[in-house]
Amino acid sequence: MNHPGFHIAVIMERRALTNRWQTHAWEAIGIVPDPGDAATPRVLRQDAASTQWLHGGFEAELHRDEAENYYLNLSAAQACVFVIWRMEEDLAVPKFVTLSYGEAARFMEASEQVDTTPMPGDMRDRLGEFVAEHYKPEPKRRSRPPSFRGAKRG
Hints:
Elements: E1 5-16, E2 24-33, E3 42-46, E4 50-61, H1 67-75, E5 80-88, E6 91-98, H2 101-109, E7 113-118, H3 121-134
Antiparallel strand pairs: 1-2, 1-4, 3-4, 5-6, 5-7
Helix pairs in contact: 1-3
């Protein structure tokens, strides 16, 4: 089955720290459309304070059974892209990207490193169209027990 999605590249940043226990910190700081030539990581920018790496070749696929989790993402104050990454030698390497709160939560529960980056407007719009087409809220099934409806006083 062919799933719609977004071809993206992840920008990872290594920042120098002035800390006696840790010399630097890694963080996913953004996503861009995949340029198609970023299969191997490459340095985008480097100075004394930080280095930014571009990692391409990712696809954030959309699945109907995750529509509620996409809806939750879009309903947040800032819709985001979740980037799951691991350290490989001295480089932080993204392994997976998702737009689903549920998928991101499952990775966090498995003790994976998960960062968020802001979702670009065009991606948010296309995801909104997918959610409008595939997300159907479940009807409420539970009613209040009679003891909570209030007593008649007379």
